[in-house]
Amino acid sequence: MHIAWGPFLLALVVIVVVPGPDFVLVTRSAASGRRWGWLAAAGVTCGLVLHATAATLGLSALLAAVPAALLAVKVAGVGYLVWMGLQILRHSGAALAEPGSVPELVSGRSVFLRGLLTDVLNPKVMLTFLTLLPQAMDPAGEPIRQAALLSAVAVGAFAVWWLVVVPSVRKLSALLAAPRRRVVFERCCGGALLVLATSIAAT
Questions:
Q1: What pLDDT, on the 0 to 100 scale, is given for residue 101?
Q2: The pTM of the whole model exceeds 0.70
Q3: CA 154: distance to chain centroid?
Q4: 3-state helix, strand, coil in the chain (%, to 5)
Q5: DSSP 3-state assignment of 141?
Q6: How many Å is the Cα radius of gyration of the chain?
Q7: Structural contact between residues 152 and 24, judged by C-beta atoms closer than 8 angstroms
């Protein structure tokens, strides 16, 4: 079995470090407390596991082959990102109204679910697995075994990335202690999600 590890890992590194909706969600959550960051990262990672499992079993390819189904996932994903972005923008003035306050994250469960849904409803994640895995696989090898191995490496790479990102946001939390800086950060996060939603809708 000759997997094309070089091109696969190179492409994977680029995909991991380029910010997307999951990065915005995790950093915003971590800025309110490391525990929230870990919960958001755990939700995102579980979403990746679901995508990886679906890709390995061929379910993602089946979904992508049905235009109406892929469109439904895209619409749901875009709608969810828009809703999250607007919610963040709506509550971004809380720090000025109550100096020293942090964004209301409700509960650990809600933060985890936000991370999970952000990843599961992002069609770009599904299409990434569909395009990245086949390019690295050996046509002569056993497909499910190869897909499972490559998917595990991809999920592991993202998990390692969150292990770096979440603790790094601690310095950002100190910087955001000032209410006005917190408001700017919150509005940037909300705006970023709206931009990303537009980008997904346009593709």
A1: 46
A2: yes
A3: 13
A4: 80, 0, 20
A5: coil
A6: 18
A7: no
Residue 158 has pLDDT above 70, yes or no: yes
Tell me the C-alpha distance between 170 and 175, whole Å: 9
Burial string for 20-54 (b: 16+ CB within 10 Å, else e) reads: bbbbbbbbbbbbbbeebbbbbbbbbbbbbbebbbb
Among 18-22, 89-93, 172-176, which is the least confidently predicted range?
Answer: 172-176
Cα 69–chain centre separation:
21
Residues in the chain, how many?
203
Residue 156: C-alpha distances to residues 6, 16, 45, 79 (Å): 16, 11, 9, 28
**Tokens in use for 34?**
């490391």
- Where helices occur in 18-107 by DSSP H, the ranges are 21-31, 34-57, 59-64, 67-90, 94-97
CA-nearest of 81, 104, 119 to 29 is 104
Query: How many helical (H) and strand (E) elements, i.e. helices and strands, does the chain have?
Result: 10, 0
Rounded to whole angstroms, the Cα distance separating 73 from 119 reads 11
Query: What type of residue sits at position 82?
Result: V
CA atoms of 105 and 28, how far apart (whole Å): 10
Amino acid at 179: P
Of 28, 2, 183, nearest in space to 98 by CA = 183
Mind listing the pLDDT tens digit for each residue in 161-179? Answer: 999 999 988 776 666 666 7
Q: How far apart are CA 149 and CA 138, in angstroms?
A: 12
